Amino acid sequence: MGLGRRDLLKLVGGGAAGFFLTPVPWRLIDGVAIRTESWPGVPDPPRGEVRTRYTTCTLCPAACGVRARCVVDQPVSLAGVASHPASAGVLCPAGLCGHHLPLLPNRLRQALARKGDNFQPVGIDAVAGAVATALADMRQNGSAERVAVLDARPGRTASLMYRRWLRAAPNGTYLLAPSAEATAPMGIDIARTGTVLSFGAPVLDGWGTPGRVLEARKTFRLIQVETRQSRTALLADGWLPIRPGTEAALALGIANVLIEEKLYDAAAARNASDFAAYAALAAQFPPQRAAQLTGIPAQTIIAAAHDFVGHGPAIAIAASDPGGGPLGEDEQIAIAALNVLSGSIGREGGFLPRGEASRPAGFEEAALAPEQGIAEVPDASIRVLIIDDARAAGTWCWSAIERKLAATHIVVAMTEFLEGAAQHADFAVPAPAYLEAGEDAPAPPDVPAAMFSLAGALLKPPPEAVDGAAFLNQVAGGGPALADVLKQRVAAIHASRRGEVFHYADASRTAVRDVKSAADLWKALEEGGCWIDHQPTPHEKPLFAILGDAPDRVLEAASGRLPADAQFPLALVPYGWRGAAGGAISPIMTKLYQESDLRPGGDTIELHPDTARKYGVADGHVAIVQTRCGSCQRRVRVDESVMPGVIQAEVGPSASGNCRPEALLNACGVAGDGTWRLARASLRRA
Amino acid sequence: MKNYRGSILFVAGFAIALSAGWLAFPRAEYERQNQPIQFSHKVHRDKGGMKCEDCHAIRDDGTFSGIPAVDKCAGCHAAPMGTTDEEKRMIKRYIEPNREIPWLVYARQPENVRFSHAFHVKLAKLACERCHQAHGDSNSLPAFERDRVSGYSRDILGDPSLANAANRHPGMQMDDCIRCHQQRGVQDSCLACHK
Questions:
Q1: A172-176 and A186-188 as β-strands: parallel, antiparallel, unpaired?
Q2: Which of A306, A311, A317, A309 is nearest to A351 (CA)?
Q3: C-alpha–C-alpha distance, residues B134 and B18, integer Å
Q4: Within the 59-78 window of chain A, which residues sit less than 8 Å (CB to CB) from chain B?
Q5: Which end of chain B is less packed: N or C, by CB atoms within 10 Å?
Q6: What is the pLDDT of residue A662?
Q7: Is the Cβ of A263 closer than 8 Å to some Cβ of chain B?
Q8: Which ipTM did the prediction report?
């Protein structure tokens, strides 16, 4: 009566049939699928009460309002603040996942000192000691060398502290970042602008305050002047594909049409002391000559000039590319002069002079080191260089900075990650990351009124992290903390009784004169708010010079920045996106680069099919880009939208994760005016 | 008899599998964990005169406070209000050191889900019990039953056992959300619920 083999099979067969009529297999399949959501590496936020906290984004100069959903004290998602006077409820992709940055595994948590090609741990005291010793040595020897702070995010209260500290330091020099956006004394009244003529500014892809610009885009016309068919060019009302490096020629060509046809604002032009000289310069660039230089047909240039002033108020802007670096000063002069012709300076819908949040006593302009561009500093003159926010400096061409360093020098990078300029530093000092630093945010460039926001810290920084002001205090042996100076500044704003406070939590506004005390104002700003100065800054239209002392340089720039070179026949044009060009990004953002075709990524160059054919490369090939200053290896992507004879190279994260932008930027080389946005190059298959 | 022997064995195997799958598996599927502190929703409601939203509030800006933080409990229980050992334990372990109570959340959704209590309670007028059953009437917190495979609670996954067939809780999985939305004619899109 025992069970035979066949009996056992029948029993098991019955069991198997029954098994599939139970929830077991379906629950197991479902359970295993769900389990994959909590595999190791998937973040597991803490549990607890969900709270909403507010702060201000400091990842770029846009200073967008941030609503953070926190579980207990840990931010788990970020969103924009509805009705925010600048950001209008919008956050860019980088801002939406900014709370991941403090958690990245490559976060710098202790100070490092360079030893050969590597870094080794060191105490912050030792770093401060090394700087203090160098300063003492400079003082003792009466050295002509400089101590400098290179500020990647100028305009903050910390920037004022740096400038005051430098005033007392030997040959203290405060250097603006090459691509600083937030220091302009004039804001752009973009909400009332009729036409924007943009020379390479990524107006719709990370320029100004994205929410405000997108809101204003409903009303302004956009003419984009750019070599590549960028996102902004695609979405513009008109795109003028221009030969690389000929922006000044086009600006003068448009000026020529406006002056010849008397379409300019004569009243505004009368304020320019050298208008005759400017008109004479523009007369050298009739549309036909401008067409020859820029590659844009003469009729298109004439139409663009008509379009520019036909829908006023009209502004011309020339912004730095986040990856390619700043435009040359002379090109900027040629482009800015169009605003004189359109009469947009000091006019609603144009450029309006704006004040700034009141400063505390002791921070008057006379007590501070002046702001300087890095190109203004003599080569080999900086003995001690402190770089604040070295991560943001990831898209600077290091050789532009390196040439300014003395033979014996110390470079200290205040940074959250060992990225960008920090890789070239002698010391890397851990700084509080985004959401960890209690600091302020100045007015973004496209806001016509002065603004001041506090970016309250939502997270505790690592124990060793110090902000730049605290580090300088350590070097000097004492000084006020940033938090104390911020409180003094808020007290000064309160004492001014100007403007109003916008409260992030309920979008309400309170006039500063109705805020009882400075402490109340501090509390309102710290809990989530921004101060806006709605009173117009009194100004008169002074007599000014358009060209200043640079008419010859402007003429030279307009004649083309990129002379022909038989050995290097191609034009290398680096570009980047503000949200990611700096280096460290959230893992989620890598989807833009690695799992999609949305952005090419830092290991890629783009070529026109004809260019690719001519140089024997095809889609997916690896090619070597060679310039007079260096070379880099990149994967080829063939794209018909690229101008023939041009190599487009994105400065940003790479799919492989090991392709850094330095090789590309250094290959571009630094021009005489300190820019690196163009280079002659050759190409061959690797 | 010999002719039926094979069929009997097949049916026996079939029955064993069915029994195991419908009766034993639902019990074995979950591991039970007790909450760190016991308390009575009913006492808070009846004796304390509290409402659900006193602790699980929908704020003016539409956000939901979820499980209250320990400082909310401390608002009333900084010193013992009653005589229970559980209350004393809560004060000593969590309120005095200001340490969060590690509640095991029955309704915890995956992190990729966005759920607005304000939409469901204020706009759609759904009762809390529709998804959370009658927690508000409970005298003690039920054990948290965690699915051994997926890690989610029985409240999320629902209960497939025959024992609870009559009062089967629908669960709070995506299918359950979609079913309810379809019944109510609510339009869906992925990004309405997923972030």
A1: unpaired
A2: A317
A3: 31
A4: 69, 72, 76-77
A5: N
A6: 74
A7: no
A8: 0.78
Residue A253, CA atoms < 13 Å, CB-side half-sphere: 26
Instruction: Report the alpha-carbon distance of residue A396 to residue A404 in Å, rounded.
Output: 14
Total residues belonging to chain A: 686
The residue among B5, B8, B14, B174 with the most chain A CBs within 10 A of its CB, best to mutate, is B14
Mean pLDDT of B30-46: 91
Rounded distance between C-alpha atoms, residue A90 and residue A73, angstroms? 23
3-state secondary structure of A110: coil
For residue B154, give both structure tokens: 């029985």
> In angstroms, rounded to a whole number, what is the distance separating the alpha carbons of residues A427 and A126?
10
Nearest neighbour of A49 by CB, restricted to B67, B111, B160: B67
Q: How far is B3 from chain A (nearest CA, A)?
A: 12
The residue-averaged pLDDT of A375-379 equals 88
Percent of chain A with pLDDT over 70: 94
Instruction: Please write the tens of the pLDDT for every residue from A295-320.
Output: 999 999 999 999 999 988 999 998 77
- Joined tokens for residue A631: 């070379």
Asked whether the beta carbons of residue B25 and residue A7 sit closer than 8 angstroms, the reply is no
A29 at B interface, C-beta within 8 A: no
Q: Which of A393, A388, A406 is nearest to A665 (CA)?
A: A393
pLDDT higher than threshold 60 for residue A512? yes
**What DSSP state is assigned to residue A597?**
S
Cis peptide upstream of residue A102 (ω within 30 degrees of 0): no
Q: What is the pLDDT of residue B10?
A: 92
Per the CB < 8 A criterion, the answer to whether A199 and A327 are in contact is yes
Q: Note the pLDDT tens digit of each residue in A581-617.
A: 666 778 777 777 666 667 777 788 999 999 999 999 9
Q: At a CB cut-off of 8 Å and minimum separation 6, what does A554 contact?
A: A248, A252, A281, A330, A333, A334, A547
- Collapsing DSSP states into helix, strand and coil, what is residue A610? helix
Question: How sure is the predictor about A622, in pLDDT bands with cuts at 50, 70 and 90?
Answer: very high
